[in-house]
Design goal:
alpha+beta, 4 helices, four-stranded antiparallel beta sheet, Cyclic Phosphodiesterase, Chain: A, five-stranded antiparallel beta sheet, globular
Length: about 190
């Protein structure tokens, strides 16, 4: 069994990396956050979970077909946010401007995996980049105020040329993500 997910690797601009670094430094006295390592930053298209290795060739064949149906496209990172909310933050993220191409890609991946026996997503796809998971809040008022201060427009335009099938190996000091296969989109 391999723990798998499908994602687009993202390389953040210096400005966004500086934004995250400043947020880490400012928040460290108010909360414990497990920050995503820079080399692990991605947009998840579908989490498969523990998967029988015998299914991987079928998954790869489905993804090869999907990659032929989609052209390269641009995404725009536009804001900072938190899942549940800024008053009850659990996941800190960078938001992606509404983008039909990534939504259609995620839906086609979900449908093709459903045909291979994987559960369909219950929630509507919302493209985002997880940058941190809140583990403990020492001072809720100050931490939430800090998060609200950070709510600003963040812009980075990124060309998307491929998506990847990743294996996630959980280790005590954090996950290691290995690309098993890359699927290039049409030019």
């Amino acid at each position: 069994m391999k723990r798998l997910f499908v994602a687009i690797k993202i390389e953040l601009s210096k400005e966004l990396l500086d934004f995250i670094s400043n947020l880490k430094n400012k928040s460290s006295e108010f909360a414990i956050v497990k920050w995503v390592e820079t080399n692990n930053i991605h947009i998840t298209l579908k989490f498969l979970g523990n998967t029988d290795e015998g299914k991987i060739p079928e998954i790869e064949n489905a993804f090869k077909s999907i990659s032929l149906n989609h052209k390269s496209f641009y995404l725009e990172i536009e804001k900072f946010g938190a899942f549940r909310s800024f008053s009850k933050p659990e996941i800190l993220w960078l938001g992606i401007k509404n983008n039909l191409q990534i939504t259609l890609l995620a839906e086609e991946i979900d449908n093709s995996l459903n045909a291979l026996g994987f559960d369909k997503e219950n929630r509507k796809f919302k493209a985002h980049i997880t940058i941190g998971r809140v583990k403990k809040i020492n001072d809720r008022n100050l931490f939430c105020a800090l998060l609200l201060e950070q709510e600003q427009n963040l812009l980075q335009k990124i060309k998307i040329n491929e998506f990847h099938l990743f294996e996630s190996i959980l280790k005590p000091d954090g996950p290691v993500y290995n690309v098993l296969r890359s699927f290039e989109l049409k030019k």
